[in-house]
Design goal:
Blueprint: E1 2-7, E2 10-12, E3 18-26, E4 30-39, E5 46-52, E6 57-59, E7 67-72, E8 77-82, E9 91-101, E10 104-109, E11 113-117
Parallel strand pairs: 2-11
Antiparallel strand pairs: 1-3, 3-8, 4-5, 4-9, 5-6, 7-8, 9-10, 9-11
Length: about 120
Protein backbone atom coordinates (compact mmCIF):
# COMPACT_ATOMS: atom_id res chain seq x y z
CA UNK A 1 0.00 0.00 0.00
CA UNK A 2 1.08 3.56 -0.66
CA UNK A 3 0.51 6.62 1.49
CA UNK A 4 0.74 10.27 0.49
CA UNK A 5 1.39 12.59 3.41
CA UNK A 6 0.91 16.30 2.82
CA UNK A 7 2.09 19.25 4.86
CA UNK A 8 2.38 23.01 4.63
CA UNK A 9 -1.16 24.31 4.34
CA UNK A 10 -2.54 27.11 6.47
CA UNK A 11 -3.78 30.67 6.60
CA UNK A 12 -1.91 33.40 4.76
CA UNK A 13 -2.62 36.98 3.82
CA UNK A 14 -3.07 37.99 0.18
CA UNK A 15 0.30 38.41 -1.46
CA UNK A 16 1.89 35.93 0.89
CA UNK A 17 3.56 32.59 0.25
CA UNK A 18 3.16 28.99 1.30
CA UNK A 19 5.03 25.82 0.46
CA UNK A 20 3.25 22.49 0.27
CA UNK A 21 5.06 19.17 0.52
CA UNK A 22 3.88 15.65 -0.25
CA UNK A 23 5.81 12.48 0.50
CA UNK A 24 4.92 9.12 -0.99
CA UNK A 25 5.80 6.03 1.00
CA UNK A 26 4.95 2.37 1.22
CA UNK A 27 5.24 -0.36 -1.37
CA UNK A 28 7.94 -0.43 -4.04
CA UNK A 29 7.17 1.97 -6.87
CA UNK A 30 8.57 4.33 -9.43
CA UNK A 31 7.08 7.76 -9.80
CA UNK A 32 5.25 8.39 -13.06
CA UNK A 33 3.83 11.78 -12.10
CA UNK A 34 3.14 13.65 -8.89
CA UNK A 35 1.14 16.78 -8.54
CA UNK A 36 -1.41 18.93 -6.78
CA UNK A 37 -5.11 19.43 -7.32
CA UNK A 38 -7.40 21.80 -5.49
CA UNK A 39 -11.09 22.07 -4.78
CA UNK A 40 -12.83 25.17 -3.52
CA UNK A 41 -16.31 25.02 -1.96
CA UNK A 42 -18.93 24.54 -4.64
CA UNK A 43 -16.31 24.05 -7.34
CA UNK A 44 -14.96 21.05 -9.19
CA UNK A 45 -11.53 19.73 -8.39
CA UNK A 46 -8.92 21.14 -10.74
CA UNK A 47 -5.31 20.46 -11.56
CA UNK A 48 -2.96 23.03 -10.09
CA UNK A 49 0.35 21.61 -11.28
CA UNK A 50 2.08 18.32 -11.84
CA UNK A 51 5.54 17.03 -12.64
CA UNK A 52 6.76 13.89 -14.33
CA UNK A 53 9.64 11.71 -13.19
CA UNK A 54 11.71 13.36 -15.91
CA UNK A 55 10.89 16.85 -14.68
CA UNK A 56 8.30 18.00 -17.20
CA UNK A 57 5.74 20.28 -15.62
CA UNK A 58 2.35 21.67 -16.39
CA UNK A 59 0.35 24.34 -14.61
CA UNK A 60 -3.15 25.68 -14.50
CA UNK A 61 -3.28 29.02 -16.30
CA UNK A 62 -4.48 30.69 -13.12
CA UNK A 63 -1.26 29.88 -11.25
CA UNK A 64 1.37 30.27 -13.96
CA UNK A 65 4.10 32.68 -12.88
CA UNK A 66 3.07 32.43 -9.22
CA UNK A 67 3.37 28.75 -8.33
CA UNK A 68 6.34 26.46 -8.88
CA UNK A 69 6.23 22.67 -8.64
CA UNK A 70 9.38 20.68 -8.03
CA UNK A 71 10.20 17.11 -7.17
CA UNK A 72 12.85 15.09 -5.42
CA UNK A 73 12.70 11.57 -6.84
CA UNK A 74 15.19 10.24 -4.32
CA UNK A 75 12.88 11.33 -1.50
CA UNK A 76 9.63 10.52 -3.34
CA UNK A 77 8.57 14.06 -2.58
CA UNK A 78 6.86 16.82 -4.51
CA UNK A 79 6.76 20.47 -3.49
CA UNK A 80 4.49 23.31 -4.48
CA UNK A 81 5.86 26.78 -3.83
CA UNK A 82 2.96 29.22 -3.91
CA UNK A 83 3.77 32.93 -4.13
CA UNK A 84 1.63 36.01 -4.58
CA UNK A 85 -1.34 34.15 -3.18
CA UNK A 86 -4.81 35.47 -3.89
CA UNK A 87 -8.11 34.89 -2.08
CA UNK A 88 -9.26 32.83 -5.06
CA UNK A 89 -6.46 30.35 -4.32
CA UNK A 90 -8.35 29.33 -1.20
CA UNK A 91 -9.16 25.63 -1.46
CA UNK A 92 -8.34 22.17 -0.20
CA UNK A 93 -5.14 21.13 -1.95
CA UNK A 94 -4.67 17.40 -2.51
CA UNK A 95 -1.55 15.59 -3.53
CA UNK A 96 -1.88 13.16 -6.42
CA UNK A 97 0.57 10.48 -7.47
CA UNK A 98 0.57 8.13 -10.43
CA UNK A 99 2.98 5.37 -9.58
CA UNK A 100 4.44 2.56 -11.63
CA UNK A 101 4.18 -0.62 -9.58
CA UNK A 102 5.42 -3.69 -11.49
CA UNK A 103 4.66 -1.97 -14.83
CA UNK A 104 1.09 -1.13 -13.85
CA UNK A 105 0.11 2.48 -13.15
CA UNK A 106 -1.87 3.20 -10.01
CA UNK A 107 -3.27 6.52 -8.83
CA UNK A 108 -3.18 7.65 -5.22
CA UNK A 109 -4.49 10.68 -3.37
CA UNK A 110 -3.49 12.43 -0.19
CA UNK A 111 -5.98 13.45 2.46
CA UNK A 112 -5.88 17.11 1.49
CA UNK A 113 -4.61 20.24 3.21
CA UNK A 114 -6.50 23.49 3.59
CA UNK A 115 -5.05 26.67 2.13
CA UNK A 116 -6.86 29.85 3.10
CA UNK A 117 -5.86 33.23 1.69
CA UNK A 118 -7.51 36.00 3.63
CA UNK A 119 -6.76 39.27 5.35
Amino acid sequence: QVQLVESGGGLVQPGGSLRLSCVASGSRFNIFTMGWYRQAPGEQRELVADITHGGSTRYADSVKGRFTISGDNAKNTVYLQMNSLKPEDTAVYSCNAVLDMSSILYEFWGQGTQVTVSS
